[in-house]
Amino acid sequence: MDHPLIDLINAKIRAAEENGDFDNLEGAGKPLPKVDDPENVLINRLMKENGAVPEFVTLSRELARLREELRETGDRTRRRDIMTEMSMMDAKIAMARKAYR
Fold first, then answer.
1. What is the dihedral sign for C-alpha 49, 51, 52, 54?
2. What distances in angstroms separate CA 65 from CA 11, 48, 57, 71, 78, one per listed residue?
3. Torsion angle of C-alpha atoms 70, 74, 76, 81, degrees rounded to 10
4. d(CA 66, CA 81)
5. CA–CA separation, 41 vs 48, rounded Å?
6. Distance between CA atoms of 59 and 100, rounded to whole angstroms?
């Protein structure tokens, strides 16, 4: 079943073509740029344009914060807890990197 507005959309496109709105567009006649992940190219572009970062980047920042806290902490119990968190964070980063590819 067609979208209820398909006739209106097609009419707008025809009018734009007749007015020359599609003439001399940047990249006209050139092949589309090669992408590494064609299935997710739109999502990746939107993330990049809006300043979003992949999960593994966020997790890596958290790992750096934990390392800093470990350097500053003298309490043995807290150091052990931080190292446990860091170990789990390493595993999460590995999984997020694998999912991102």
1. positive
2. 56, 24, 13, 10, 14
3. -30
4. 10
5. 10
6. 13
With beta carbons less than 8 A apart as the criterion, state whether 97 and 56 touch: yes
The residue assigned the tokens 């446990």 is 84
Which amino acid makes up residue 8?
L
> What does each of the 101 residues of the chain score in pLDDT, given as a tens digit?
578 899 999 999 999 999 999 898 888 888 887 877 777 788 878 888 888 888 888 999 999 999 999 999 999 999 999 999 999 999 999 998 888 76
Tokens 């992940």 found at: 37
